[in-house]
Design the sequence.
């Protein structure tokens, strides 16, 4: 049985040749956080990481993947939504309908890995995912927020609470003190 | 015990079974937001205080929301409205959806489920606040009765009830059982707005975390035990039928279970996985009887609409004095013809629905903007009585009006009915979603202004020719040939969609011309093109009469103070009295619709090569009461993405009866790199409740088009902009 290396686990799957990685993740492995939006690598809702690089899984045949290639999906970013990018997303209430946001977060985490302090132009170039609700400006702001948090963490600072970030960046009140 | 509680107990039992056997999310649970699945199951064992409020023994408050969350934040906003009157602890609030079947069984206790027309808050503010207030009243009464003290001596703050004289206190969770047995109060006073503590706050949404972890369940993600998947193809020509299907080869494919007809116009493949169903469907040989619309094209529609511009059969939407006579005798006339194309909603999540049909029951799990309409469609398509049908609403991956229609619900029921007992998840491909849209209506508009010898307007005639949405989706609402929705933003003075100008004479009329393309409510609806027509033409008059566009508007808007206030707010914020930066040009637009007043100013530049760059947009909204300002900002920003995507790129054209665009490659949408900075001014003048999800879309395009004219002298009268060169 073929295997995929997903979120740190070796997982068996059964699919016909040519089945895109997206549909293996969703239908064989139960990882439905990765979304189908277009099937032609246009919208980015299906973005996952392969060895840390953002890839559109809807046009990537699963059979082309080797077990040495590490696949990370939104479910593998953190178990509890505590990754700095996810916390920035929560703090700024980025998602509207939320359907594109798994892909957005995967694209953003890949960008920040490559460029820890991205410029607006870097963000323009890396974030080509489609959002129909129109969350782009908050996506941009959340990437900058996450970059600062990650830099501070590197320098030894304690991560800020979601509520603290939300209040300071956008004056959003997280009454419950942040969900994470 | 009422029906909802009974249903909830059943849910709890089945939900528990589902949990213990490790079955997947969504199994039998009616309240399908993830939070509610995890927590609502136990919530359901607490009795409801009333239809809107359940308080658990641990003081967690479950607020029921009948409208659908599709990104617009209504779940949070409506919960704020209930919580305001309930005086509960916001940190302990959760939400859940009641089902349409429960609502039907309880005489529609939750009111209208329909989530469109920016109605979430403005259509239910009164009864949801009363629901919260009534719950508070019986909760306090229960505590007072337990203590045997007068109710008037008790007060509540954040769900803690205190008896002042004795300093005793208890919590909502402790008295909820007793409160549930009390009769509902008759007189339910609401708070004075000045006392609001939850309404008006920049609170974080209640549904964000799961959308950052992949845990949020959308319709497409649903999995039921024993479920199969369906891919479907309807006739690519509207009104066409299936002539023949050769399924021999496809049925031999692994995983393919069945090839079946859905009605007389569609074919579905059912397989173990959707990918197998979809690829099998692609390989299927289908012959179509294309019917009478096989030769239609966008060009033929254009001719039909053009003829309507001067036709006699027009119905009047707004009339002041005798505009045609004033124009006929005017010293000078200005005339222009505008048009607006078909557009697809292109929700990020394609249409889908999951149905389990048995001879006894039809259950539908669906992302829908209208639970009750989905329930009615399921009832009709299933052949079962309404009481034997149920709809479980699932979080929507975008709606924008598309998910108010029920075509895809009927189709999914039609498939499941042919496979009794097997849950079927039907998902459209993006290509099917593009082909089978319920499109933004096409219209054209001829505007004629009469001017006197000093350049003052003596009359304006707007003739709209084109599609009526109501004629397509609710013909019973057409009265004397008139579709009132056609005139959005152009109505006489009043609380809804009124025109913001006073002209000495005015005639707005509509010649209904309905090409065969199915239409629907597309976010912003007819306010979109009507505002483009009028706001562009006001600028044309300003240019023709050598007046500054803001000054001309102010002159015409004297009798429309709320319209004018948002325009002035925009002018002030952008610094209109000072020139724009070198090479940057400004354009203005204002309108009123969905209960709110909106205006925008765009700052743009055009490169030598003709590339448009939108630098900055300032937008103002007066929605009366602003329930959650940070979410209003999100809606305003999103409205520019939706409105500018439409203006810049989007049209659905028809050739040989088929929609030509098939995916985001040929139906582009605005991306992050093109997104301008948006500054939102909220002018909450109070005293009314306006919508915020839609009105701003209407000012996005005309503000940019007017700025383009300022930059280039080119007046764009038909969209999308990609069809025009802006090169000098």
Sequence:
């Amino acid at each position: 049985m073929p295997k995929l290396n997903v979120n740190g686990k070796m997982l068996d799957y059964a699919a016909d040749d040519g089945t895109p990685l997206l549909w293996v993740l969703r239908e064989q492995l139960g990882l439905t956080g990765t979304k189908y939006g277009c099937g032609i690598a246009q919208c980015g809702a299906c973005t996952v990481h392969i060895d840390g690089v953002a890839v559109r899984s809807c046009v990537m045949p699963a059979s082309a993947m080797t077990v040495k290639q590490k696949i990370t999906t939104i479910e593998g970013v953190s178990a509890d939504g505590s990754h700095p990018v996810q916390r920035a997303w929560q703090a700024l209430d980025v998602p509207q309908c939320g359907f594109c946001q798994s892909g957005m977060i995967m694209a953003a985490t890949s960008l920040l890995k490559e460029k820890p302090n991205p410029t607006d132009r870097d963000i323009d170039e890396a974030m080509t995912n489609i959002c129909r609700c129109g969350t782009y400006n908050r996506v941009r702001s959340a990437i900058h927020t996450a970059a600062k948090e990650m830099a501070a963490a590197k320098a030894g600072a304690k991560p800020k609470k979601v509520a603290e970030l939300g209040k300071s960046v956008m004056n959003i009140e997280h009454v419950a003190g942040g969900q994470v | 015990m009422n029906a909802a509680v009974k249903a909830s107990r059943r849910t709890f039992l089945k939900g528990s079974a589902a949990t213990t056997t490790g079955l997947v999310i969504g199994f039998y649970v009616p309240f399908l937001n993830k939070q509610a699945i995890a927590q609502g199951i136990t919530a359901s064992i607490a009795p409801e205080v009333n239809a809107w409020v359940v308080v658990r023994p641990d003081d967690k408050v479950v607020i029921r929301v009948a409208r659908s969350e599709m990104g617009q934040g209504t779940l949070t906003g409506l919960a704020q409205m209930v919580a305001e009157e309930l005086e509960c602890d916001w940190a302990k609030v959760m939400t859940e959806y009641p089902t349409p079947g429960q609502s039907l069984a309880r005489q529609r206790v939750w009111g209208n489920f329909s989530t469109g027309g920016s109605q979430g808050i403005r259509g239910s503010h009164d009864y949801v606040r009363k629901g919260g207030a009534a719950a508070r009243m019986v909760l306090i009464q229960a505590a007072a009765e337990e203590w045997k003290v007068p109710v008037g001596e008790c007060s509540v703050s954040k769900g803690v009830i205190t008896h002042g004289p004795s300093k005793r206190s208890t919590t909502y969770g402790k008295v909820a059982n007793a409160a549930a047995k009390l009769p509902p109060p008759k007189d339910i006073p609401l708070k004075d707005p000045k006392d609001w503590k939850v309404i008006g706050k920049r609170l974080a949404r209640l549904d964000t975390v799961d959308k950052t972890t992949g845990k949020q369940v959308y319709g497409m993600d649903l999995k039921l035990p024993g479920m199969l998947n369906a891919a479907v193809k309807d006739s690519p020509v509207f009104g066409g039928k299936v002539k023949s299907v050769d399924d021999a080869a496809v049925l031999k494919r692994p995983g393919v279970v069945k090839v079946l007809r859905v009605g007389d116009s569609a074919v579905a493949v059912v397989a173990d996985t959707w990918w197998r169903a979809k690829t099998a469907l692609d390989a299927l040989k289908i012959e179509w009887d294309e019917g009478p619309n096989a030769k239609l094209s966008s060009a033929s529609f254009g001719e039909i609409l053009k003829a309507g511009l001067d036709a006699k059969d027009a119905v009047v939407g707004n009339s002041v004095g005798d505009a045609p006579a004033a124009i006929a005798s005017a010293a000078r006339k200005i005339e222009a013809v505008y048009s607006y194309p078909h557009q697809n909603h292109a929700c990020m999540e394609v249409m889908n629905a999951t149905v389990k049909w048995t001879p006894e029951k039809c259950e539908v799990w669906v992302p829908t903007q209208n639970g009750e309409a989905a329930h009615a469609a399921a009832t009709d398509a299933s052949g079962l009585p309404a009481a034997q049908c149920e709809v479980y609403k699932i979080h929507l991956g975008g709606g924008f009006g598309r998910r108010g229609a029920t075509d895809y619900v009927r189709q999914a029921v039609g498939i499941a009915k042919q496979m009794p007992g097997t849950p079927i998840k039907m998902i459209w491909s993006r290509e099917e979603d593009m082909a089978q849209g319920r499109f933004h209506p096409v219209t054209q508009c001829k505007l004629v202004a009469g001017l006197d010898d000093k350049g003052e307007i003596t009359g304006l005639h707007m003739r709209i020719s084109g599609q009526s949405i109501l004629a397509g989706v609710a013909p019973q609402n057409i009265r004397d040939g008139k579709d009132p929705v056609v005139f959005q933003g152009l109505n006489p003075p009043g609380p809804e969609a009124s025109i913001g100008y006073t002209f000495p004479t005015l005639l707005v009329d509509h010649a209904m011309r309905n090409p065969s393309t199915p239409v629907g409510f597309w976010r912003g609806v007819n306010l979109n093109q009507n505002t483009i027509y009028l706001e562009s033409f006001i600028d044309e008059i300003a240019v023709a009469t050598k007046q500054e566009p803001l000054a001309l508007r102010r002159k015409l808007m004297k009798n429309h103070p709320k319209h004018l206030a948002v325009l002035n707010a925009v002018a002030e914020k952008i610094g209109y009295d000072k020139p724009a930066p070198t090479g940057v040009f400004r354009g203005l637009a204002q309108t009123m619709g969905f209960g709110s007043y909106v205006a925008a100013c765009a700052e743009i530049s055009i490169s030598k090569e003709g590339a448009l760059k939108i630098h900055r947009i300032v937008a103002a909204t007066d929605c009366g009461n602003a329930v959650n300002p940070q979410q209003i900002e999100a809606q305003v920003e999103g409205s520019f993405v939706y409105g500018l995507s439409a203006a810049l790129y989007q049209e659905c054209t028809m050739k040989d009866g088929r929609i030509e665009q098939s995916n985001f490659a040929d139906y582009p949408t605005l991306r992050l790199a093109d997104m301008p900075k948006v500054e939102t001014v909220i002018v909450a003048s109070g005293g009314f409740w306006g919508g915020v999800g839609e009105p701003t879309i209407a000012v996005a395009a005309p503000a940019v088009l007017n700025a383009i004219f300022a930059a280039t002298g080119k007046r764009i009268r038909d969209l999308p902009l990609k069809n025009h060169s802006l090169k000098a």
Observations:
- Residues 309-343+439-723 of chain B form a domain with the Aldehyde Oxidoreductase; domain 4 fold (CATH 3.30.365.10).
- The radius of gyration of chain B is 27 Å.
